[in-house]
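Database export, one record per block. Field names are fixed; values are copied verbatim from the stored entry.
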Amino acid sequence: MAEKPRIGVFVCHCGLNIAGVIDVKKVAEEAKKIPGVVFSTTYVYMCSEPGQQLVIDSIKKYKLNGVVVANCSPTLHERTFRNAAARAGLNPYRVEIANIREQVAWPHEHEPEIATKKAIRIVKATVERVKNNMAYVPYEISVNKKALVIGGGIAGIQASLDIAEAGYEVYLVEKSPSIGGKMILLSETFPTLDCPQCIETPKMTDVSQNPRIHLMTYSEVESVSGYMGNFKVKVRRKARYVDVDNCLGCGACVEACPVKNIPSEVDRGLTNRRAIYISFDQAVPLVPVIDADHCIKLTYEKKVAEGKIKRRSKPGTVKICEKCQDACEPKVINFKDTDKIEEIEVGAIIVATGFDLMPMEKLPEYGGGKIPDVIDALAFERLLAPSGPTHGVPKRPSDGKIPKTVVFVSCAGSRDPAHGVAYCSRICCMYLAKQAMLYKHAVPDGMAYNFYIDIRSNGKGYEEFVQRVREQRDLIYLRGKVSKIFQRGDKVVVWGADTLTGQKIEIEADLVVLSNAMVPSEGAKELAQKLRIPQDEYGWFNGAHLKLRPLETVTAGIFIAGAAQFPKDITDTVSQASGAAAKVISMFAKPKLTKEPLIANVDTEICAGCGICKEQCAYGAITIDPKKKVSVVNEALCEGCGACAAVCPSGAMQLRNLNSKQVIRMVEVLTEDY
């Protein structure tokens, strides 16, 4: 700031969040004494329209060339006040936030004098920062108006359809042979008991028939480079050994396959599939895939290639099980198929990778997956589903008998730090209530017990649904946690407690259904690293801001939807998928994208090209010029996090409007009189 500072300070009451602890009037009075401050005032809600107008009018009246707003986190309202300053004709990057709510009022709730003194210091330090702020202009970036959606469950399907409907092309990548995700495996959906197949299969068909959607099943994201508006993505198209474009989906190859003992992923191991298989009858695309790890011919060829066995004779002279190929009339099976890498260019990415269930092996107190008649809730969904292995009639996996006593166990791993999952999986109470009701419909003379800690039914019509279930005859809710499950003869014994009566409970059941904790999908960690987006301590993808930017990530141009972020039901998943799609559509509607200019900057005169900054950059924004031997910042990739500036040994790497001179001066002000 070359000209003489004329700074305005605006102190927000934030209702009683700030003013209930801090003497805001005293803060404003002390701010007037700071050299360079020409105006200071307070207002009850500075972020409101009257508050913003106060800032705008003051900028014009007092000819302010810098503004400090003392309020809440800059994550919440920095953009609000920068926009207000711009409307008044002031460069928005000469506005800074002094955070006196999260950093002062809240942690010093019972120390008003200390809080007030601390707030004054923070305001003084922020004023010193603004004095050296430079005026910048946002960058303009061209945008490739194509989107990538990762994950073909209901979230990915909905997001893809919304973007395509707006007129933009979409690449939908799904690692399984078919889209559909977990929803397509369900029996019915709460609270309306709709058929999930009736809801989702038309959408799956719409995806396959939409000319703007490029469906890439049995594929995985290999790498991602580039930046908002201009991502380059390499997708591994895994060898399917079947020509997708020309296959008729008749299933003759599947019937011919002699390998029949592979546990079915769709049926959660309750049934077996063959080495060549179609995931389920409504699969999209309705094309089989060969499991190379179990196919007789492919495993033989692999062993020959690895030198583990010698070839029996010359290739082509002896057939090594080609029964599927022989049975295929259109001749679309190709045993020489290989993985292929396809590179696509997109402007935005939506991550919709969904969830998995905690493995049974992690629940040893509940049998640890060793008791055949203790199953997870998704397996029971398959038993209840008309399209499932038992056509909707629940049967015991061990002997095929209809269970007359079923115990449902809530919070199997959820809300349990001992299992590494302190959170609630949110939807278990609802789907166990649904399953208990459907079990009673299928087995009217059956007895159902539902162990629960608390009932959490927070959606529209959910509480009414649970109450309806609890009114069923021979369906008993027991408030208490199950301590142990073990086998006794042909029965499964459940030990628990009823905390309402204080009694210990022992039930001899025919079948036990666990609501295993929902956990991030397999491969989520690796994908997060490829996309350069953060995860929380449990592995769920983090949004940029929990309340204001829940669907955005800190990497511009990448969004999250559905249960990739945290456990969600279908309603919330679809809503957020459409929300993420709307964010993408909003991006694509602009002729150019703008990016914050407050990024890292290199002083090439003192940069030694040591590369430490490059190693620390989480966004891949820094490279080393091989000729000049200095660091180079890709302005489009840099997110201004400051990690590079913090580790630079020479001080060559600086952040705009937060350089070392500003930081040192702020520290000096904060530590005065100490």
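Remark 1: The chain has a mean pLDDT of 95.
Remark 2: DSSP finds 18 helices and 32 strands in the chain.
End of record.
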